[in-house]
Amino acid sequence: MAHPYCTAAAIKLQFPENDLEALLDDSGHDSVTDKTARLAAAIEKADNTIDLYCGKKYSVPFDTVPDKVEEMSVDLTIYYLACRKWGNLEMGSTIKTNYDLTITLLKSVSKGEAVLSVPDPTANLNRVGKTLIDSDSRIMSRENLSGF
């Protein structure tokens, strides 16, 4: 994985910090290292899910993360953390609804029905322009090397 599609800061913008802390802390006094590892594992799982669906239409992992991909990573991360802590979530909960909407969108992306705003990595390959290499004139030639 190149880099995570979302961060703890992005998650905290969408999900209350106290609730996130409750999802990460199993005993009430877990170490920061343990909580960070749980968060990293959930983000990795979310990002792998995104790559699984988006890999049919895009080169993954994304070098430049589209805003929608970050948003989906946040929703999936929260869902995976909640499932880890509480087991399966009931239908109708906001976390479950966001998860279902994200998976529906990912399925649409994989079928080509929805398009992500991802820069085309091949856009500049056929571009005509000036030479970017500048060097001194040629030193070796057939004439200079004829005696060797």
What does this structure look like?
51% of the residues lie in helices and 0% in strands. By secondary structure, it is mostly helical. The chain has one domain (8-111). The longest helix is centred in the first third of the chain and has 23 residues, at 32-54. It starts with 7 loop residues before the first helix and ends in a 37-residue tail after the last helix.
Per DSSP, the total helix count is: 5
Order of helices and strands: HHHHH
How many angstroms does the end-to-end distance come to?
A: 52 Å
Number of DSSP strand runs: 0
Question: What form results from the Cα inertia axes?
Answer: elongated
How many domains, as an integer? Answer: 1
Major beta-sheet overview: none
The portion of residues forming beta strands comes to under 5%
Computed Rg: 24 Å
Q: Percent helix among the residues?
A: 40-55%
What do the pLDDT scores average to? 86
- Counting helices, strands and paired strands, the structural category is mainly alpha
Low-pLDDT windows of residues: none
